[in-house]
Amino acid sequence: MANETRKVMAVLEGKTVTPPPIWLMRQAGRYLPEYRATRARANGFLDLCYRPDLAVEVTLQPIRRYGFDAAILFSDILVIPDALHRNVRFVEGEGPQLDPIDADGIAKLTMPDVRKSLSPVLETVRRLRNELPAETTLLGFCGAPWTIATYMIAGHGTPDQAPARLFAYQNRKAFQHLLALIAEASAEYLIAQIDEGADAIQIFDSWAGVLPDEEFRAYAIAPVKRIIDLVRAARPSAKVIAFAKGAGYNLKHYRAGTGADCIGLDWTVPLDFAAELQKDGAVQGNLDPLLMVAGGEALDGAVSRILDRLGHGPLIFNLGHGITPQADPENVTRLVEKVRAFKGGVR
Amino acid sequence: MANETRKVMAVLEGKTVTPPPIWLMRQAGRYLPEYRATRARANGFLDLCYRPDLAVEVTLQPIRRYGFDAAILFSDILVIPDALHRNVRFVEGEGPQLDPIDADGIAKLTMPDVRKSLSPVLETVRRLRNELPAETTLLGFCGAPWTIATYMIAGHGTPDQAPARLFAYQNRKAFQHLLALIAEASAEYLIAQIDEGADAIQIFDSWAGVLPDEEFRAYAIAPVKRIIDLVRAARPSAKVIAFAKGAGYNLKHYRAGTGADCIGLDWTVPLDFAAELQKDGAVQGNLDPLLMVAGGEALDGAVSRILDRLGHGPLIFNLGHGITPQADPENVTRLVEKVRAFKGGVR
Q1: Looking at A30, A126, A217, A309, which residue is catalytic?
Q2: Is A298 in CB contact (< 8 Å) with chain B?
Q3: Domain A3-340 belongs to what topology?
Q4: What is the pTM of this model?
Q5: Exposure of A237 by Cβ count < 10 A (0-12 exposed, 13-18 middle, 19+ buried)?
Q6: Interface pTM (ipTM) of the complex?
């Protein structure tokens, strides 16, 4: 079946689809009992990412349950530093941990053979495209270089990624080298995902929101543009969603700066600004993930406001960040029904 | 000496002062050895806030060392929940802790007699106005209701204040009641600070950046407007700086919505947006506090960019968030010298 029947792909081409297609960031996750059951069969989180049989299963679970318009490869943004031999591990209840890197360590990094190192992930993509319904878009993804670098420098998550910000001020050249290397490896990885059957790609810059003015341009915009340029040089028709969480007003320059087809909006982006951004192309978002916990009238009201304001243009309905483990699967059902009932028409 | 000679006050009236006045959020803090020495004499952090002799001393220390154009009362935003009997305590290395409140607890809250409960803080304000140089602006402050409420609900700080966001979705009326009560108590507190000699007021909304569209209007804008309206009804010439950290594009409506004279800008607000906001009045900010750790060329470059872009209009130079314990006092000297050397003139 050709791409044209995949609604998410139509929106990525700038078309308005009514009702808008919907998927949820982290839709394969701990809020689903079937996910928890599959995860229990893996030897930790990274093992789940690297075992195609299990990764395919958890990717498909939310598609079976809700019929989302897109499936996103089950994996993690830190597989790239893992391929760079940074000893990534996920400790239950503590978040990811890596060996922190310094300027000397950065100088010693060499480009990994991504297709080889991450072959289990690529195998997952290949199997997914075969198993997914024809109308379901398959999204590949990677982390943005800035966000990946913040974890590589600190060795773990921090409240405002101060270690990487400080390192970048004090070691600008080494930091730029690190971003360039991550960008190149990520582009290779995304091209391989496309070759195995990913219809489109999302780049996650979860920590874009802590960067000042010039640093946003240098560390959030430029490396993502580099990835997109490299991917498009190899696969000219590649479609990309770029999600810079917390970027605020900086989103104004993000689409033109990076070349992304669609801009992901976190839940704090006000709808008047979102509508302004939508004039230039597709947007994705941006319901507060906590409404999947709260449900009720608060959920209904917020969904209506997003549809009223953004549903008449190119929109991929999504949350403004990943769904949380506390979410009630019934609220997801309610959300999908509400979005699918949207008829568009006169405003 | 009249207000007119106080540079910060001139900027709050919308005037351009060259070079711009400067002070730093958390300028009385752990980066200063003299602060650490005084703090060691107190029985914990709240005791330091409630002992006028010590609170006056730490407020004056950065003025003596750097000659900042404003002193800010040494206190904490959580003295309001403390006055509301929420058992506030500061545990070293763990941040503030309170007894978490629920809808029943909110229903039982009663307006505190702020002038009585917080009389030591007001005594500090009175003494400060007598001891400060005539040209130094004395700033009082309080926390914004949303930020105060996030701590009252969760009982401690959290990465994205999810407990308060969820509570507000599930208990909208109780939450609105809590905000209204905090706003009323805060207005009383600010009026008392003005009566004791505070020249102007800053309202800190440290957690404004986690709110979606409609909630930003309801929880960040409306309660701050309520405070400012109450303060101005009692003291018509009161000047207010409102600082909504992380508010991104929402700042566009923040000055008009709240009635604040000056908008505080965190370090992530890009300078093109800051310049747009400055067209409507004074702005304050917005150097990355980490540059007080990094120093060097990174510091010089960032200061120049802010001065070039915002120094030709009404600007109070400041950091974009509080100075950190790791800051080098020499870098603060370098910053003050650089700002004071700014000559304005043709762009």
Answers
A1: A30
A2: yes
A3: TIM Barrel (3.20.20)
A4: 0.96
A5: exposed
A6: 0.95
